Amino acid sequence: MDAATPVAAAASTPASPAALIGWWRGDRVCLELFANGDFELSDLGDEPKVMVMGKASVVAEGDGFALQLATERIWKGRYVSSCRKHHEYGGFIDSRDMLGVQFEPGKATQLKLRRIGDAQVELCGVACATLTRTTPALVARWRRAQMEFPDRPKATWQAGDLLELDLNRSLGHVWAGAADGKFATVYARIEVQYVAVDRFTVTLRPEYYADAVVAGVAPTALGLAFPVGASQVLEVRRLAGERIEVCAAADRCATLERQFDGGHYDLD
User: Fold this and answer.
1) Of 33, 43, 41, 26, whose CA–CA distance to 8 is shortest?
2) Which residues pair with 111 in a beta bridge?
3) Planar angle of CA 235, 12, 121, nearest 5 degrees
4) If we measure between CA atoms, which residue out of 258, 22, 244, 38 comes closest to residue 131?
5) What is the pLDDT of residue 47?
6) CA–CA separation, 69 vs 110, rounded Å?
């Protein structure tokens, strides 16, 4: 190749960039390359945990690949030191050193990536890390745009719109649009299953409701009712820019944006 190529663009042969799409985990560093061209590079070895996000491009080079990561934003999780002497809430930060190289929003950083087996790669900056292929997971909380503050939204919605999907594995929830600028919260057990590159199914089993709930009527979103005790399945596709498309049917979909919580220690 004579130019940087998005990860998703090449044919999926063992020596091609497309073969690198997926989730690669190490003891400290994790790299996920998405078919939509995004990347997530996480540092889990230090506290606070940090995730660098942006656009990835790959060029075959020597016995491996040159990986260019164009950083768009960097999230730092919450941190509390031993004996609680130091405490920081999570938030976006201006820079991060990882593998001996610097990442900053608006700048591109070059790494090298070399396959060292069917299920392992070596990722190098100044320092190197060995990463093992792992089945991609879909986590986090995803919300409709212009709802940073739900009590003061910048956009309106209709009854039955899907406003938020929280994939908390203990007890997640759905926000289902209701009348008069309100929404109902459906608390549910969540099961997420990887289907294919950037695609997942999410099964919800509602347990109880809160907020704007009409007595005796199950909240509805994307044309699906969520009665307690039943199960509903949503199809989810990862989109570029840390967004997902959630569908109940081909013509009943919503686009949601990833949310970050300054009170969380983990990155999901």
Assistant:
1) 33
2) 67
3) 95
4) 22
5) 77
6) 6
Q: How far apart are CA 184 and CA 217, in angstroms?
A: 11
Residue that the structure tokens 């020597």 belong to: 62
Sign of the alpha-carbon torsion through 132, 71, 237, 172: positive
- Kindly calculate the radius of gyration of the chain based on its CA atoms and give it in whole angstroms: 20
The verdict on whether omega for the bond into residue 48 sits within 30 degrees of 0, i.e. cis, is yes
Q: How far apart are the first and last CA of the chain?
A: 35
Neighbours of 254 (CB within 10 A): 21
Our CA angle for 37, 175, 180, nearest 5°, is 120
| 3-class DSSP assignment, residue 176 | strand
What one-character DSSP code corresponds to residue 18? G
Instruction: Give tens-digit pLDDT for 198-218.
Output: 999 999 999 999 999 999 999
In whole angstroms, give the CA distance from residue 259 to residue 160. Answer: 21
244-255 per-position pLDDT tens digit: 999 999 999 999
